[in-house]
Design a protein that fits this description.
The protein folds into 5 domains: about 190 residues, Jelly Rolls (Sandwich); about 70 residues, Immunoglobulin-like; about 270 residues, TIM Barrel; about 70 residues; about 240 residues, Beta-galactosidase, Chain A, domain 5 (Distorted Sandwich). It is built from 11 helices and 52 strands. The chain starts with about 20 loop residues before the first strand and ends with a strand. Bound molecules: beta-D-galactopyranose. Beta-D-galactopyranose (GAL) binds next to loops.
Length: about 900
């Protein structure tokens, strides 16, 4: 038996796809509460004419799984059902939606369209029991002509939505499976002689200066248009200066308006250009996501995304992996973000069966593919921000994608076409890769990538600019190594930047639920929690790092000169205020404004620097550079051997060697196994000797893993120095240790009733956490926060909160203060729980504070890398020392 939703076909009864236009014609929003009935199978037993009186109510837009019907499920690549296209499981959850509508009386004559902006995954719509059409393409707009079906009185609108359909095979994006009417619904009046569609191509001639414009409108009546500025006077649009102009197009029946931007995207000489200048994406991949509402994102959430992106110097978004809510594109136009808009096509699950039966190469799916591409391009063709079309994601390769590329190039020659899966660049205008290593990226930058078999094709690809449609996997704590990517991008004009994977953690609800938390049997765990912002959009340290790495102004000290590099393509530094300050110890002793003559776009300039150590120079809040003052060594009195039971107000519960960390998700994909094999997580201590001499109380301890003969020889030396204590620790690695260590130092457990409320004040890098390959955003200074605030609440608990280059700290509890001063800068993490607790927790709320404060003092730590999908920690960020000496003075 074949159900309608198993027939591979474009929408039926749908009006031609067209641009989203602001209009003075009537628009009636149908968002709000609808009647709703849910059924675990497609046979709902509900008649389309049934108005649904007495049924439950559900908000539209929304996903039914988030209102208690069925449950969300997360898979990355795997389809959660057998691959048997176009068939889907009998257990096909189905939602029946009802709403009474009334055609507004003032909508005289003309037609009425019913518009859906997003319904997941297949639906049929009826008016008073009469079918108006069917549609799929979950993240694509569709309109039905319902003119003849509306009576003018109360009409029953019925929508039956099936969770699974043939379309699900094209919607295997790495995200939650969530269903229902999740974007807005509206009734649109189309007056006779109105304007059905407008196509604007607004270019900018950067040589002559001035705009070029072509306007095509679809109407049965004569059309006029008017631009809010003469073309010769328009300013170009760019993400740096998103200048928009109002274009009004009218007939005597309707006026529509568009905010258009003048810009020309081109590929010239192997480079990607915008208005003649290099177009380098410093971008992110963004899914529509909200922790409470899934893909039904509010306008506020979209505004927040855009504001955060702009604040963090992000200039581009790839709408992975489907067209976003149309409002998001308006925001990109208005606030300045370049958009690679991607079509709602991903057939990734077929890769697990060697791409057998992949729809991308099956003629039976050709019309559906083309329909999807057309609906995206037609809706968003006038968006200034959209600078590139993407055919989809991870769908293999085949004739249907090639046909979509051809159609797009013909329909819209003004924008290059992208698709990462066209590895030979047979049909696309840019070469795209995901997660290349640094060396590979540099080789591509130099045009030295391995050759394709076909020389002509190879020549063509080698002549194309390259983008990383995904890099810098932001899962858990990370990504590390972004500065290294940026350096490679900077060095090679062929490289047009890239897009971090990804913008937001898709953790659901307050708790940040991930795969498996809903009892799914097939799932991919926390792989969906891989964003630069946490689910509630709180910026993670990874976002701060990315912002610092991609900052449009860069500062460097070179002897007694400051080098100011302007990385903007169109903007000078004339509005940037450069400041300097001198600090001694932790106090600012002098400050002022630095006179830096304006630096033009893509150029740099040297200016003299004020002399002296402890110098910080800032470029507004965009960039900083420091020449830290060396910390003054602590004055230590004469030493006497001693064994403290208490440090300041805190009784000591334990002091141990610390060579372990709660693995990050990047560690899990790389170093963790080697660390566990080496037994770093389960070192066994044996005291070799305890003795006092004239100066020290000495304790020598051997730490070794079960079953192995390698280990650490450690000597702890304690002495009293007046009111203070000295601790020196010598650590020697013994045996065959060829691996980088997570960290190397000591962990002190201190007793205190409310460890999270202890106030932590330190001198070192801050205020955020930092690791050897993620420290562009932190600066030397004195910082204070509670221990609780010093934890980064990653959705999946893991190593976090390291503060680097710390020279001293104070821990304050109601019982008093403890000052700790290092002879040399050290790595610090202070936690209200142990590493073991952190490692075992699956969710943040599994972590509970006890009565111990854990103070981790390390000679060094290993960086983060991005091995959960991408390169491991670079050798330069690995901690490999064979010996370490730590020395601290503790005073109350
Ligand atoms: C890519 C894919 C993304 C995401 C990422 C890993 O292959 O395009 O959707 O799955 O890997 O998080």
């Amino acid at each position: 038996m074949t159900a309608a939703y198993e027939i591979i076909a474009p929408p039926t009864g749908a009006a031609p796809a067209r641009a989203r236009l602001a209009t003075d014609a009537g628009v009636l929003s149908l968002d709000g509460l609808w009647r709703f009935a849910w059924s675990p199978t497609a046979e709902t037993g509900r008649a389309p004419a049934d108005p649904g009186e007495g049924w439950d109510e559900i908000p539209v837009p929304g996903h039914w799984q988030l209102y208690g019907y069925g449950s969300p499920a997360y898979t990355n690549v795997r389809f959660p059902f057998p691959i048997d296209p176009p068939r889907v499981p009998e257990a096909n959850p189905t939602g029946e939606y009802r709403r009474v509508v009334r055609r507004p009386e003032e909508w005289d004559g003309g037609r009425v369209l019913l518009r859906f902006d997003g319904v997941d995954s297949w639906f049929e719509v009826w008016v008073n029991g009469v079918s108006a059409g069917t549609s799929s393409g979950s993240r694509l707009t569709v309109e039905f002509d319902v003119t003849g079906l509306l009576t003018g009185g109360d009409d029953v609108l019925a929508v039956r939505v099936h969770q699974w359909s043939f379309g699900s095979y094209l919607e295997d994006q790495d995200q939650w499976w969530l269903s229902g009417i999740f974007r807005s619904v509206a009734l649109l009046h189309r007056p006779d002689g109105g304007i059905d569609d407008v196509r604007v191509v607004a270019g900018y001639d950067h040589i002559k200066g001035g705009g070029t414009l072509s306007v095509e409108a679809t109407s049965t009546r004569p059309v006029r248009w008017e631009l809010s500025s003469p073309l010769t006077e328009v300013q170009p649009w760019s993400a740096e200066n998103p200048q928009l102009y109002r274009l009004e197009v009218s007939t005597d029946a309707e006026t529509v308006s568009l905010d258009i931007g003048f810009r020309t995207v081109s590929v010239e000489g192997g480079r990607l250009l915008l208005n003649g200048a290099p177009l380098v994406f410093r971008g992110v991949n963004r899914h529509d996501f909200d922790p409470q509402c899934g893909r039904a994102v509010s306008r506020e959430a979209m505004e927040r995304d855009v504001a955060l992106m702009k604040q963090h110097h992000i200039n581009a978004v790839r709408t992975s992996h489907y067209p976003p809510d149309p409002y998001f594109l308006q925001l990109c136009d208005r606030h300045g973000l370049y958009v690679v808009e991607e079509c709602d096509i991903e057939t990734h699950g077929f890769s697990l069966v060697d791409w057998r039966g992949n729809p991308s190469d099956d003629p039976a799916w050709a019309d559906v593919y083309l329909d999807r591409m057309r609906r995206m391009v037609e809706r968003d063709k006038n968006a200034a921000g959209v600078v590139m079309w993407s055919l989809g994601n991870e769908s293999g390769w085949g004739r249907n994608l090639a046909a979509n590329a051809r159609w797009t190039a013909e329909r819209d020659p003004s924008r290059p076409v992208h698709y990462e899966g066209d590895a030979d660049c047979e049909s696309v205008d840019v070469y795209s890769r995901m997660y290349p290593g640094y060396d590979e990226l540099a080789a591509i930058g130099r045009g030295e990538e391995p050759a394709l078999a076909d020389p002509a094709r190879d020549r063509r690809r080698r002549g194309l600019p390259m983008i990383m449609c995904e890099y810098g996997h932001a899962m858990g704590n990370g990504p590390g190594g972004l500065a290294e990517y940026e350096a490679v991008i900077d060095a090679h004009p062929r490289l047009a930047g890239g897009f971090i994977w990804e913008w937001i953690d898709h953790g659901l609800g307050e708790k940040g639920l991930y795969g498996g938390d809903f009892g799914e049997t097939v799932h991919d765990g926390s792989f969906v929690i891989d964003g630069l912002v946490l689910p509630d959009r709180a910026p993670s340290p990874g976002l701060a790092e990315f912002a610092a790495v991609i900052a449009p102004v860069r500062l460097r000290m070179d002897g007694d000169e400051l080098v100011v590099e302007n990385r903007w393509s169109f903007t000078s530094t004339e509005k940037v205020v450069f400041g300097w300050s001198l600090s001694a110890d932790d106090m600012v002793i002098d400050e002022g404004v630095l006179d830096v003559p304006a630096v033009g776009p893509l150029s740099s300039r040297r200016v003299p620097l004020p002399p002296g150590p402890g110098l910080t120079v800032t470029a507004g809040d965009i960039a900083f550079v420091q020449r830290p003052a060396p910390a003054a060594p602590a004055a230590i009195g004469s030493l006497k051997p001693a064994r403290p039971a208490k440090l300041g107000p805190f009784p000591i519960a334990s002091l141990t060697l610390d060579a372990w960390r709660a693995p990050t998700e990047n560690d899990r994909a790389s170093l963790e196994e080697r660390w566990r094999t080496a037994g770093l997580h389960q070192l066994v201590a044996r005291t070799v000797e305890e003795r006092s001499d004239e100066t020290w109380w000495r304790r020598r301890v051997h730490y070794g893993p079960p079953g192995l003969d390698s280990g650490f020889d450690v000597e702890y030396r304690w002495a009293a120095a007046g009111e203070a204590y000295r601790l020196e620790v010598d650590i020697d690695r013994r045996g065959e240790w060829r691996l980088p260590l997570p960290r190397l130092g000591v962990a002190l457990a201190l007793r205190t009733p409310a460890p999270g409320s202890v106030w932590l004040d330190w001198l070192g890098l801050g205020p955020g956490e930092s690791y050897p390959d993620s420290r562009a955003a932190v600066r030397h200074g004195r910082y204070g926060m509670t221990v609780r605030e010093a934890q980064t609440p990653y959705v999946v608990p893991q190593e976090n909160g390291n503060r680097s280059a710390v020279s001293r700290l104070t821990l304050s509890s109601p019982d008093g203060d403890l000052h700790i001063e290092g002879d040399k800068p050290f790595d610090l993490a202070v936690r209200p729980w142990s590493t073991t607790q952190l490692e075992k927790a699956r969710h943040a709320d599994d972590l509970t504070e006890g009565n111990l404060l854990w103070v981790h003092l390390a000679a060094g730590v290993t960086g983060l890398g991005s091995a959960s999908c991408g390169p491991a920690v670079r050798p330069s960020a690995e901690y490999r020392a064979a010996q370490a000496r730590l020395a601290f003075t503790f005073s109350g």
